[in-house]
Amino acid sequence: MSFFQDKVVVITGGSDGIGKALIEALIPLGAKIATCGRSHDKLYTLQMEYARVMLHAVACDVSKEDECKKFIESTIETFGRIDVLINNAGVFLPTRTETEDGYETMFQVNYLAPFLLTNLLLRELEKSEQGRIINLSSSVYAIGKFDPDNLQRLRERRFSVLGTYAATKLYMLMFSEELAMRLKDTSITVNAVHPGIVRTRMMLQAPGVLRLVSYLSLPFSVSTSKGAQTSVYLASSPEVTGISGQYFAKSKRVAIKNKFDTPENRALLWDLSLKAAQLGDAIGARGAG
Q1: What distances in angstroms separate CA 120 from CA 55, 60, 182, 240, one per listed residue?
Q2: Can you give the pLDDT at residue 62?
Q3: Which strand (E) or helix (H) includes residue 17?
Q4: Are 79 and 8 in contact (CB under 8 A)?
Q5: Strands, DSSP E only, in the chain?
Q6: CA 6 to chain centre
Q7: Is residue 181 part of a domain?
Q8: Quick one: pLDDT at residue 100?
Q9: Which of 53, 105, 114, 239 could connect to 87 by a Cys-Cys bridge, CB 3.0–4.6 Å?
Q10: Which residues of the chain are under the pLDDT cut of 70?
Q11: Annotated catalytic, 233?
């Protein structure tokens, strides 16, 4: 039996794009998959492609805590445990919009929701022989900015789509490093991933001048299956056992370069995220010190 046989993997945003490619790559390796997305029809179609013993697909808005909890509960009921979490779901929107909770949408979906879901799943991941968390970031993190008084980038005179998206990807990277530090005495590892310039619907529907940039990038872009490869490697390979708090691209560790990515800022982002996600002190104190 292989290292990865019968591992239970939770993948957010599995109905399309990289998420779907992850499912298509991991099930043949012996994984059992629990995934969620907003489209009932796409999830139903996906479910029909695989036996229910291998795939558990649930309609879920990951930005809503109640729906996240129901998704987790149904996953545990179906498979009994969780070994790997891949925070893949994300959006790139042309204008500033708000969620039902009153947060800027990219901030909540791309960062705050994964922060919440990860913390809700930590106790289950601790039960795994070697729990793994993989967070989808992006190379655009390099131009992201961290301002503790302006996390959602709402104070600029003009809303910046790229600036906001880059900030959320920087937060995902900083969160990965901070959580890895807090879990250093556990069996759980946490790493961040740049999937590459991937040809996804989100990329091709970019707004305004960014759409032009996206189309100009097509010759350098990769398929969703190639975009999933590094996450597949981190989820399934015994070679990365024990490696945590790193940033990967093309299945190799890459140096992190952003002046805002400091231990002090990572700890501050953690505290601010706890408040925004309304998580309790028991989780907030995890691994502190």
Answers
A1: 21, 15, 15, 24
A2: 87
A3: helix 17-26
A4: yes
A5: 8-12, 32-37, 55-59, 84-87, 132-136, 189-194, 246-249, 252-253
A6: 22
A7: yes
A8: 87
A9: 114
A10: 1-2, 155-157, 196-222, 279-289
A11: no
**For residue 26, what are the domain limits?**
8-196+227-282
Q: How far apart are the first and last CA of the chain?
A: 39
Distance CA(284)–CA(266), nearest Å, equals 13
**Counting beta carbons within 10 angstroms of the beta carbon of residue 72, is it exposed (0 to 12), middle (13 to 18) or buried (19 or more)?**
buried
Q: Is residue 3 domain-resident?
A: no
User: CATH code at 239?
Assistant: 3.40.50.720
Q: Parallel, antiparallel, or unpaired: how do β-strands 8-12 and 32-37 relate?
A: parallel
Instruction: Decide if 210 is inside a domain.
Output: no
- Tally of structural domains, the chain: 1
Give Dmax (Cα) for the chain.
58
187 belongs to a structural domain: yes
The sign of the dihedral angle between the CA atoms of 47, 202, 216, 137 is negative
Torsion angle in degrees (nearest 10) through CA of 103, 107, 109, 113: -80
How many beta carbons lie within 10 A of that of residue 259, not counting itself? 9
Q: What's the pLDDT score for residue 188?
A: 98
